[in-house]
Amino acid sequence: MANVLDLTESLLDRTKKLLDARGEISLRRIAVETGINEHWLRSFSAGRADNPGVQRLEKLHAFLVEYHAAQRFKQRQDEARTG
Fold first, then answer.
1. What pTM was computed for the model?
2. What distances in angstroms separate CA 58 from CA 14, 21, 66, 78, 79, one per listed residue?
3. Is the pLDDT of residue 2 over 60?
4. Which of 60, 66, 75, 83 is the most core-located residue (most Cβ within 10 A)?
5. Rg of the chain in Å (alpha carbons)
6. What are phi and psi of 46, to 5 degrees?
7. Could you tell me the pLDDT band of residue 1, with boundaries at 50, 70 and 90?
8. How many whole angstroms separate alpha carbon 67 and alpha carbon 51?
9. What is the 3-state secondary structure (H, E, C) of 9-71?
10. Do 31 and 37 meet the contact criterion of CB atoms below 8 Å apart?
């Protein structure tokens, strides 16, 4: 996942990678949590979203960065308990 946060990539590319690597969280849940339309999320995920808009991308990117950080933290906690 190190390449997911490569700052030489555009916000669009980083956000798409984070969304592709989202794991078990559904697009519906992301829509509810962010207020971004689920249909748009599906289109964006499939590479069909026209002009995604910077505000929408920033909101989605911020959510996904926090989500991935929480997942990594949970994974480390689980490993520490079982390790």
1. 0.82
2. 11, 17, 12, 30, 32
3. no
4. 60
5. 14
6. -90, 0
7. very low
8. 24
9. CCHHHHHHHHHHCCCCCCHHHHHHHHCCCHHHHHHHHCCCCCCCCHHHHHHHHHHHHHHHHHH
10. yes
Which tens digit of pLDDT belongs to each residue from 26-79? Answer: 999 999 999 999 999 999 999 998 788 999 999 999 999 999 999 999 889 988
Decide: 56 and 19 in contact? Cβ < 8 Å. no
Domains of the chain: residue spans and CATH: 7-82 (1.10.260)
| Token pair 């339309």: residue | 37
φ, ψ (nearest 5 deg) of residue 32: -65, -45
Name the token pair of 77: 């906690």
Say how far apart CA 49 and CA 11 lie, in whole Å: 15
> Which residue type does 72 have?
R
